[in-house]
Amino acid sequence: MEITELQKDLAAVFRWTAKLKMNEGIANHFSVCLPNSNDFYVNGSGLHFSSIKASDMVLVDQNKIEEIKKKPELVDPTALNIHGAIHRKVPHARCILHVHSKYATALSTLKDPILKPIDQNTMRFYNRVAIFNDFGGLGFEEESNKMAAAIGNNRSMLLANHGILTVGETVAQAFDELYYFEKACETYITALSTNKELNEVNSEVAEKTAQEWENYPVNMGEQHLKEIRKILDKEDASYKS
C-alpha cells in the first residue's frame, strides 16, 4: 500500500516530539483522520516516538473499534477510546496530539491551571484553552466521551492531573499548537518558580495579541512542519518509510 503524505507528516511529528523530549516512554498517542472520513491513523502499541515510521501507523475503522480493542497489542485501548471519541464528536479535530510533556503536565497539576498572559506565547492561548477538570482514570470509554464534550471550539485542552491534548484541521496545525503551548507553559512555570509577582498584561492586550496570532498573514504551522521535515530528511529520512 502506498504511504501517504498524511502518514509522513504524522511520522515527522512523532520524531520531532521525541527530539524535544516531550514524549513519555512508549506512552502517548497521535492520530489523524483520513480525508472525508472519521477513520484515523494512530501509532501502534509499544512504539517509541523516536523510531516511528509512516508505515507503522495503524488505520482504525471507527465501525470496528470494539473489535480492535480486543487486540491491545495492536493499538492501546486508551488511544482508541480518547482519539476515537474526539474524532467522532469534534468536527475540527482532524488531528489529535496527546502528550504528558513536562511543563504542560506541571500546569495541569496546579489548583489554578489557567495560563496567565505574561508573554506573547501565553497570550496566544488567552481564553482559548479548555480545562478538563474531571480526571477519572487512564482514559477509558466514559472518560473519553467527557473529554470530547469538554473541548468545545478550542484547539487545546488541558487535562487536569494528566497532560495536554491539542487538535487541528491538519497535522501541522495541531503540532504548532502543541509546540507553542509547551513553550508557553515552560515560560509560565519558570516565572512561577521565582516566587516573584507576575507582570500580567491586561485583558484587552491579551485578547488583541491572541487575535493577532490567529490572523497572522503567514501560515506558520504549515511552514513549521515543512522545515521540520527538511531537517529530518537530512538527518534521518527513515520516518517516511
What tags apply to this protein structure?
single chain, 241 residues, alpha+beta, L-fuculose-1-phosphate Aldolase, 7-stranded mixed sheet, globular
Mind sketching the topology for me?
Elements: H1 5-19, E1 29-33, E2 40-43, E3 57-60, H2 65-68, H3 77-89, E4 95-99, H4 102-108, H5 120-124, E5 129-132, H6 141-150, E6 156-159, E7 163-168, H7 171-193, H8 203-214, H9 220-235
Parallel strand pairs: 5-6
Antiparallel strand pairs: 1-2, 1-4, 2-3, 4-7, 6-7
Helix pairs in contact: 1-9, 3-6, 4-7, 7-9
Concise overview:
By secondary structure, this protein is of the alpha+beta class. The chain has helices spanning 5-19, 65-68, 77-89, 102-108, 120-124, 141-150, 171-193, 203-214, 220-235, and strands at 29-33, 40-43, 57-60, 95-99, 129-132, 156-159, 163-168.
Can you put this structure into words, describing what you see?
This protein is an alpha+beta fold and 241 residues long. The termini are close together. The protein is 44% helix and 13% strand. The mean pLDDT is 95. Helix 3 packs parallel to helix 6 and helix 7 crosses helix 9. Strand 6 and strand 7 form a beta hairpin.
The total of beta strands comes to 7
Number of discrete helical segments: 9
Following the backbone from N to C, one meets helices and strands in this order, namely HEEEHHEHHEHEEHHH
- Helical content band: 40-55%
Poorly predicted runs of 5 or more residues: none
Major sheet summary line: 7 strands, mixed
